[in-house]
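Researcher: Please translate sequence to structure tokens.
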Amino acid sequence: MKIDRLLSIVILLMNRRLIQAKELADMFEVSVRTIYRDIESINGAGIPIVTYQGANGGIGLMEGYRLDRNVLTDRELADIFTALQSVSSYGGNEHTLLMEKISSVIPPSQSAAFRSKTTQLIIDFSPWGLQRILEEKLATLKEALEESVTVNFDYVDAAGQTSQRSVEPYTLVLKGQAWYLYGFCLNRQDFRLFKLLRMKELVKNTQVFIAKDVDASELPWSNEYQRSTVTTATPIVLQFKAESKHLAEERFDSTELLPDGNGGYKVTINYPEDGWLYGFLLSFGMHVEVLEPPHIRQKLGQLAAGIAAKYKT
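Model: Translation complete:
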């Protein structure tokens, strides 16, 4: 813990001209005397730290001191910084110190150019809503992962059925703008992928587990959908009129778009036939028509009629 604290103090001093000993003491939950002992240790390691007395005084690094940054280029450092910002968009401050470290190795004369590079691309994974709920679940699961303890929760599957689960957590996965937990389900005695938004009453246990060996090539989030598509996919032909062609261009690759001769497109897709598919097709509203197969046209008509019936009055 002391080594971590010493390194953190050095990083903070590299990013700030001066900092008060009291602020450092509060930050690391130690006494001011301990901070001054840490400063002596840092000085003894060859990192020049100067203490300034007076009302505007504090602790700072000797002017001009910087870490050696020859290992990475400015562009590479900016890319790493951008990636960390993206991961941090879901809350939590575990990446803040690393971002401080990266900033500290940039000379003051280049700091403006570096900031410009890090704002050229912003990737924010946080949703428009439900962020607080997801952050709480992510925090609980991160703790369980670090401590190698099981978690319990009620899980609502795609069909709306609820079951109680006890799971050994292995990996948190962000896939398709949704968070998932990959873990070994003690109820099913097999590995499963759980969507966080479908977890209810999530609690961390004290039961420690020994992690099983998992082959990275068999992890499901890369190939599970492809396997299900190959085995259960249904060819579906969609019609986008000319006034709605922009929606087709936005959602599908250009190789999937076949001009219909009237300014619109026909699109053939292959998706597993399930609740998600009907929700996906209905999300286009009046802008798409399913031409084939007939049974999906009929099902969508029934769903649309049911929706219309709800709003008759």
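Researcher: Any highlights?
Model: The chain has a mean pLDDT of 80.
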